[in-house]
Amino acid sequence: MATFPEQALAALNAAAVAAADATLAPAVRVAPLATLLLVSAATGVAILWVVGRTSNRAGMAAEKRAVQAGLFEMRLFNDSLPAVFRALGRVLRHHARYLGYTLVPLAWMALPLLLLVTLSQRGASRST
User: Fold this and answer.
1) Cβ count within 10 A of residue 109
2) Which residues have a Cβ under 8 Å from the Cβ of 94 and sit 6 or more positions away?
3) CA dist 13 to 49, 75, 126, Å?
4) Using a CB cutoff of 8 Å and minimum separation of 24, what contacts does 97-100 make?
5) CA 117 to chain centre
6) Can you give the pLDDT at residue 118?
7) Alpha helices (runs of H) in 1-128, residue ranges in sequence order
């Protein structure tokens, strides 16, 4: 006898299979390349929209300028090892902040992209 979590997961899996079948049913009658292009274009537009709406573009631009300044500083003072290491530390710190700014859009896109990849894998395995 299945436990409650197993029953809940089975129901969730059945719902995901039904959603994948309904979503990918039109793709069966179309050339695979056309489906790939359509899904890729729609995904790209959706990602651009999410990044545009959820990212801190001003903060990202400031951090990018700070990284470039640090790289220029390393190039300018390449004869002084302590200055190069200080500049490298600043570059790494600003780069880490820049990557931190990308975590918000990533958090918004992770689950939908995971579902898209899972559904596409299901569709690929069904068509073979």
Assistant:
1) 17
2) 63, 66, 67, 70
3) 29, 55, 16
4) 97/59, 97/63, 98/60, 98/63, 98/64, 98/67
5) 12
6) 79
7) 4-28, 32-54, 57-76, 81-101, 103-127
Q: What is the pLDDT of residues 16-60, one digit of tens each?
A: 888 877 877 777 788 888 888 988 899 999 999 999 999 999 999
The pair of three-digit structure tokens given for residue 18, joined into one six-digit string? 């039904």
Averaged over 110-114, what is the pLDDT?
Answer: 88
CA–CA separation, 30 vs 26, rounded Å? 7
For residues 49 and 92, give the distance between their C-alpha atoms in angstroms, rounded to a whole number.
Answer: 28
- CA pair distance 103, 109, nearest whole angstrom: 10
Cα angle 19, 21, 22; round to 5: 65
